[in-house]
Batch of 2 targets.
Target 1
Amino acid sequence: MTKQEWPAAIMTETEVVTYVKEAFGFFNKDARLVCKEIGDGNLNYVFRVHDEESKQSLIVKQAGPVSRLSDEFVVSPDRNRIETDILRLQGELAPGFVPKVYHYDRDKNCVVMEDLSDYTILRTALLNRQQFPQLAEHLSTFLVETLVSTSDLVLDHKAKKELVKSYTNPELCEITEDLVYTEPFFPHPRNDVFQGTKSFVEKEIWGDRQLALETAKLKFQFLTNAQALLHGDLHTGSIFVTSSETKVIDPEFAFYGPAGYDVGNIIANFIFAYTNSVYTSEGEEAFQHYLLDTIETLVDQFQKKFITAFQEKTTERVAHYEGFLEHYLQSVLEDAVAVVGLELCRRIIGIAKVVDITSIDDSQARSEAEIACLTLGKTFILNRSDYQTGHGIVEAIRGVGSYVSH
Amino acid sequence: MTKQEWPAAIMTETEVVTYVKEAFGFFNKDARLVCKEIGDGNLNYVFRVHDEESKQSLIVKQAGPVSRLSDEFVVSPDRNRIETDILRLQGELAPGFVPKVYHYDRDKNCVVMEDLSDYTILRTALLNRQQFPQLAEHLSTFLVETLVSTSDLVLDHKAKKELVKSYTNPELCEITEDLVYTEPFFPHPRNDVFQGTKSFVEKEIWGDRQLALETAKLKFQFLTNAQALLHGDLHTGSIFVTSSETKVIDPEFAFYGPAGYDVGNIIANFIFAYTNSVYTSEGEEAFQHYLLDTIETLVDQFQKKFITAFQEKTTERVAHYEGFLEHYLQSVLEDAVAVVGLELCRRIIGIAKVVDITSIDDSQARSEAEIACLTLGKTFILNRSDYQTGHGIVEAIRGVGSYVSH
């Protein structure tokens, strides 16, 4: 294999139609297929192919050799293999919560999967103030089923070590190591700090040595703790929803890391949605209550289901010793709270923003929103062992939110 | 490759001579070589080949498909590849402290290496009350150079992840997980408890729930914490010495784990040598003082050299944050102290014994020695964060040793 041969050149829309027809028999041979590149992510080209007559459709996702986020991050095209494997594994562990995979093609470096065009990206839906009553139930199930079953609690330790090897993901981990754990916490040139937030960042984030030390400890934990097979990028842009269904997509950052990472990541992104509502709109108390309730239920249901899964599935004898479950779950929660804090800070300070915050038009409101997120983030990082319930986390969010001046 | 083809059949002594002559040009073609199988380990066949005329010699180490410890542990013959790679790596990181590798042969599944016949196994030498004034200096250097340089402190994180993959060692890790972290702490059928020690074990070890919980936490840390590339089996039987030289051998258990594991393992085995002296001989205060001084110097020099290596070699930016070095080193020491405790217990209770203890002929003395080791081991496991200096560790050892009744 040479660089010229692989990865394959990115297909055109026309080539995708031909490919889908020839590669396998999903559509009728004489179907009139329409194809459109709909990717808005950072790493892949995403083609939607549909047959207007039968209404059948699917997605072809092809990896380019270079991240579309920035030429500085060159990520292995092998990530599509990882993504296919992990979608299949997650589909077994948490049936119905990930898109179905129809086909993986190593030569073309693409994966053909279920089309979720009827779904909305959760981030967008929340910005449109849509509510999904089952979201916390769905996500807590997804998290528990994927995290507990891939850990040394349940898996034979030899089999788990083979999975750690298979899902070693150096390039995409490096992105997280840099963008989440490192750059936001000092004046790195790639950071992008909003003018009105700058003096706060310089004094309260970059000027806080204790905070820096805690981020270093957390970074080393992220680098070394092969606890569970993570999604690795579980924000509201990686979740597709309908009124009754939830699908977690884009697991290309998957690797073995601290279980709390996924839990904290999604909570932080609910906080961004909440912050958007608080700092841009009046009279949305019901929606804000929904979001806080979702966070509280997510944390509490995660713990409840974790305990059940632990009790039902744990095969490791020593994990049944008195006190171990409490110790284990407490440390997962502590890690999760720390990641809430890291994510809250890095999306404000670092290069990769969230539209929940950048779309706040009023400069004053945006700075206040950002400072609220940073204040909360810092608290969660520094005092990460103090939040062991959904109620405690939600009270902390409310506490910061309440100092809004507008 | 089929099972029949690989691993290769174990060679006879005659076949080894032919192999060595033909495989590569270490000896003269017409040299009259003598070969003898000298293995007394558990996992390999070890042939010494020497030329009586030139006095040149070497070792051929061939892996059998099944551990010689017990048919219950089937370990991959691939361990010789791991051993070769790691000896070469350790030889680069800590020059002079491991045997030279001349040749690795995947088909024959053997490695040809420096003959250390002029050396003595450290365990035997200590039982003969020999002293090695530079031992603590040598071992602290070996530990620091191999552990710091393979960690995320120094290595590029992507390169480190590739090493984690290469040195994934499921079967030999399983042996440690079972024999060190699990079986000794409950009445497992494979345990082998000396009659006079049994009631102490039942009450103070198997009857202590807090101890059980701490061993479970430590087992999960061993299962998940890919901190540094360990030797993995660093007891006094894995160290060869002369009056001026120290060679660490048999790294076939090597894998990425908690750095404190190697440190604690060797300290515990010095304690066994100390215990042997205390419980079998009178008037050996000088030798006992030497052993305690070796432990104290080993711990203190490990810390001192660790700090120097950290300061000189660390490439990870966040590790330079104020307080991080102290945090990191403290946690390595804490892990080391816990492993001292685990090793002290498992060699008394579990299947794999040390001759330092089993050779104590007087039953009463042996029980007292064993109970002293278990008492100390339990203290170290339960209070592992309380011992951060060589002096503190040695005082604890002395404290238990002093209640000897004979």
Target 2
Amino acid sequence: MKKVGVAILGLGVVGGGTYKILTEHREEYKRTHKIDLVVENVLELRKERALALGVEESKIADNIAVICSNPEVDIVIEVMGGVEPAKTFVLAALNAGKSVVTSNKELYCKYSHELEKTAIKNHCGLFYEASCVGGVPVIRALLDNLQGNKILSLLGIINGTTNYILTKMSHEGASYAEVLKEAQKLGYAEADPTADVEGFDATYKLSILSSLAFHTKIPYTKIYREGITGITVKDIQYGKQMGYAIKLLAIGKNGDNGIEVRVHPAFIPVEHPLASVNDSYNAVYITGDSVEDVMLYGRGAGALPTGSAIVGDVIYCATHSNYRYSTFENTKDAAPGTKFIENFESAYYIRVNASNRTGVLAKITSIFSRCGINVAKMVQEDGSDSAAVPVIFVTHKTKEHSVNKAVEELKAIPEIAKVAAVIRVVS
Amino acid sequence: MKKVGVAILGLGVVGGGTYKILTEHREEYKRTHKIDLVVENVLELRKERALALGVEESKIADNIAVICSNPEVDIVIEVMGGVEPAKTFVLAALNAGKSVVTSNKELYCKYSHELEKTAIKNHCGLFYEASCVGGVPVIRALLDNLQGNKILSLLGIINGTTNYILTKMSHEGASYAEVLKEAQKLGYAEADPTADVEGFDATYKLSILSSLAFHTKIPYTKIYREGITGITVKDIQYGKQMGYAIKLLAIGKNGDNGIEVRVHPAFIPVEHPLASVNDSYNAVYITGDSVEDVMLYGRGAGALPTGSAIVGDVIYCATHSNYRYSTFENTKDAAPGTKFIENFESAYYIRVNASNRTGVLAKITSIFSRCGINVAKMVQEDGSDSAAVPVIFVTHKTKEHSVNKAVEELKAIPEIAKVAAVIRVVS
């Protein structure tokens, strides 16, 4: 029986889950995959954490050199997160001839060009299924199942924290601030929630997924990004009445005029399969020219679901020697000539607070008309003459820049107290 | 650039779609996968069909020997369906050293032990992603993503024809016979629909999927099977009122007491992600001990979606030389000692037509009680005293054999005109 040694860098939530899966299933993997997967080292400074998980003291390393020079280690699992020291450690492992399995979306997104070059040079595998959407097998689906398609679009709910927050706000009517606090208490959101709620985490994942889908490098810096901190319960409720659910969507499109990549909150029709992806569940909805629509759904985070993706990569790596790298020139920047569409098309939900006076509606609609925006729906709340009354417009598909222009003009009308919300509507 | 030659056996719906994908994307695959995928032969007796698709006359073969002896052919795509002559042709191709990609669920289900043995002997690849659930990447997910899990259960809507029929009956209130006729006209059902509507097709796929999921051979003959021909609009509507959708479910469970595999119509709660898988869409809902719940959703059939799965396998085969075979001893029969549970547990929907007379309810419930069945819900239609009035029971989880016994006893009561429906309820 082939013995395959692994080392785990970091015994945090995911590292701990991975350790548990590997050790508890060791006998099963001997039977099913004819390999003996042995955890030979863990890199963890909190020795007591490692001991509590059942790691033998002799296997606990406090520096990467121990692991790189251990001939028993074949595969290094990096689950530390963040760029440094993860990057230095992963490069060291690859240069020592170890294959690497990582869950680190930020590292892979920002430095895959460098990591991959090093992996190729050293004939090592570099696997990263766990970097996107936890246990949901989306990376391998793009690499090994849908690779014969031209992928036309990819719509994803790929951040668990924001989906948990938006679902709670939507179902319970609680405010963003309240739900965030609760999510932090439950461990669903970090003390500093910026990476999640401002959409950075989703842009890292979208960069990885859209590069694979479109066979060309999509740097995360090219992705339009807008977080969920401005979303109010009021708009969620208006949206509901109009048949929409609110989601932080990651969108990639590959059309005739170029590539469009963006992360922002969006209303989607309740009938769309993504609309019922709730709480910390995630999903990616992919449309290809042959496969038509495919949706992959599951737990986007968590110790064991993410551990499942890591162990899947480890077993694959241990039982295959042909590693596949990118299907495109994996450079830091986009390939010269790649066209990114910034002035993209979308429908829009626009809420203004306007004084309830005859004539204001005519002013607003004439602005829309001047900006080339067609209104699909309009709802005006009943209100007293003096107060600022919410008026909601849903537009037909229009250009982003036209909406930006219209919003500027709306702000200049004295009867409009506030342009209270602009939310894209995706169908 | 590596040139890889393929041959397509059969230019039916899926064969034609596959030919189209391969030829239209040829330049793209050179760029993305550094391979030149060339269709070197097609096996098709209807020469005009091949010519109409654009195949050069010199590439049209009328017997398998031409393809087996063509040194330019590396990979043979079998999309003929049925056992013979597909089986003979696939074995001939493998014995001639060609790798095989097949969409043939019946062939793979019934003879994978023989095909795989021949593939291993000849160091050839044998790929069958397209055999189950069209373009949905479920086989590779089980093999290469979720393989570190103990898969606990698998619930699938894996037959497009029956899902189309049940969705239409459910949404439009049309009868089974009417919808079947329409489906046949649209090409969604065959002239002889038996394989689909009686659940045979689903048992072939469940045999393949559950063998992979549970790492042990599950012959299709061990699968309990019940089709949809007895489902009435009346029961669908009662079910709807109770919050259920009707589906033909393929169920595999791997519990402490053994393995449970069955294909039958079932009510599932409308909130379940599978409940909104409609029309010819298919989905598989997998629960693993690490990954928790994962659902894979998409087109379960059709020329291009199935072609997408075939071409995915072809590209993988062309770019890898490590082929993986079964993770279990792939014999014809189940491994000795495998325990299959026949007296499985489920909740049940039972509709009887009873005379609306005092005392009949007491008789029924005492039968349930005697058989150890707990009733969860009861609905009795208002009706005249003399007529046979529908009375519906939904039970708590109980044993299949207890329900069979109760149904026999119910039939013997003179006040019961008919036990009109027994449908399992799955949650």
